[in-house]
Amino acid sequence: MSPEIAQREGRAAFRDYETWYRISGDLEGGKAPVVILHGGPGVAHNYVDAYKLLALRGRAVIHYDQLGCGNSTLLPEKGADFWTPRLFIDELENLVDHLRIRSGFHVLGQSWGGMLGAEYGVTQPRGLKSLTIANSPASMKLWVEEANRLRADLPADVQETLTRHEKAGTTDHEDYQKATMVFYERHVCRVVPFPKEVAESFAQVVRNPTVYNVMNGPNEFHVIGTLKSWSIIDRLPDIAVPTLLISGRHDEATPVTVQPYKDGIKGARWEIFEHSSHLPHVEEQEKCMGVVGDFLDQHDN
Predict the structure, then answer these.
(1) pLDDT at residue 3, rounded to an integer
(2) Which residues are within 8 A (CB) of 266 and not within 5 positions of it... i.e. 6 or more apart?
(3) What are residue 244's phi and psi, to 5 degrees?
(4) What pLDDT, on a 0 to 100 scale, did the predictor assign at position 1?
(5) Rounded to an integer, what distance in angstroms lies between the CA atom of residue 209 and that of residue 221?
(6) How far is residue 90's CA from residue 103's CA, in Å, rounded to a whole number?
(7) Which residues fall within 8 angstroms of residue 55, CB to CB, at 6 or more apart?
(8) Which of 106, 149, 177, 197 is most buried, judging by how many CB atoms fall within 10 Å of its CB?
(9) Low-confidence ranges of the chain (pLDDT < 70)
(10) How many angstroms separate the CA atoms of 169 and 85, rounded?
(11) Using an 8 Å Cβ cutoff, are 134 and 246 in contact?
(12) In which region does residue 225 sit, left (phi positive, over 0), alpha (psi from -120 to 50) or beta (all else)?
């Protein structure tokens, strides 16, 4: 943790539950704060921790764990009808009001967080200054098609292991998990071994798998959860704030999955990180913080 960045944690009451959050930097610092939406769903804030470095530019950075994971209320007993995009939009709105930042804030969502950010953006919330959609598909149909294309490039024995265990319903088997990691090291994070904060998020999902399993499925390319038919493509013109798109050249969120955001959001800007996969904030950290920091500075007013 950088000694230059002051941090404080808190909990926001939401319905009968609590949302854990952390503020890096000074909320009264002058620049509009940025709220970071993590992916998964259900992966927790750890792996996007690097975005706290934006606080070095005099901007408060708000991380939080979405309901069902990390330090927030877990609710493993809840089923598919509970875990919906609307729930997480309401949780975000509640956090914005709890922190009293309604007068002006930015949102950056990564992976599922970018899908959630887009869902939030189409509601045209009061106070939203800009939206950054990082490494996110605009439709899960496109995501699955592209994931299967990338999967077809894996070594034959890896593909065979994946298919065999999926057919048998044994996706929790150690061999299946090892085969999955071959895909992850190509298309999720090319810094191997994974940095501590990335490994922490993977471990967190193992401990608290409910949200990820219900909404997504067992992994990034075997999507059998409630989001499998999700799409925001036809609603994208309703996003009315400056929007930055981020992806990596080797990203599981391939250009095909991101293109609808560029086509559908008026004036959207797209930055592709040539040496990254799904986590440019880890893989090309300095450049990523520069691109995002400059974008936020540009749209504070």
Answers:
(1) 54
(2) 237, 239, 240
(3) -110, 130
(4) 45
(5) 16
(6) 18
(7) 5, 24, 25, 61
(8) 106
(9) 1-3
(10) 27
(11) yes
(12) beta
Rounded to whole angstroms, what are the CA distances from 198 to 69, 104, 201, 210, 249?
15, 30, 5, 19, 19
User: CA–CA distance from 292 to each of 207, 209, 245, 271, 297 (Å)?
Assistant: 32, 30, 10, 10, 9
Distance CA 43, CA 56 (A): 25
Q: What's the CA gap between 227 and 84, in Å, rounded? A: 9
Q: How does DSSP assign the chain, residue by residue?
A: --TT--EEEEEEEETTEEEEEEEES-TTSSSPPEEEE--TTT--SGGGGGGGGGGGGT--EEEEPPTTSTTS---TT--TTT--HHHHHHHHHHHHHHTT-TTSEEEEEETHHHHHHHHHHHT--TTEEEEEEES--SBHHHHHHHHHHHHTTS-HHHHHHHHHHHHHT-TTSHHHHHHHHHHHHHHT--SSSPPHHHHHHHHHHHHS-HHHHHHT-SSSS---STTTT-B-GGGGGG--S-EEEEEETT-SS-HHHHHHHHHHSTT-EEEEETT-SS-HHHHTHHHHHHHHHHHHHHT--
Diameter over CA atoms, the chain: 56
Residues with catalytic roles: 111, 251, 278
- Give the span between the Cα atoms of 60 and 62, in whole angstroms: 7
Q: What is the pLDDT of residue 78?
A: 95
What is residue 2's predicted lDDT score, i.e. its pLDDT?
A: 47
Q: Does domain 7-298 have CATH number 3.40.50.1820?
A: yes
Residue 231 pairs with which residues in a beta bridge?
A: 139
| ∠ Cα 183 187 191 (to 5°) | 100
Residues 6+ apart with CB under 8 A from 214: 79, 80, 83, 225, 226
Both tokens of 224, joined, read 């059998």
Predicted TM-score (pTM) of the model is 0.95
The C-alpha atoms of residue 220 and residue 254 are separated, in whole angstroms, by 13
pLDDT at 287: 98
Give the phi and the psi of residue 68 in degrees, each rounded to 5.
95, 0
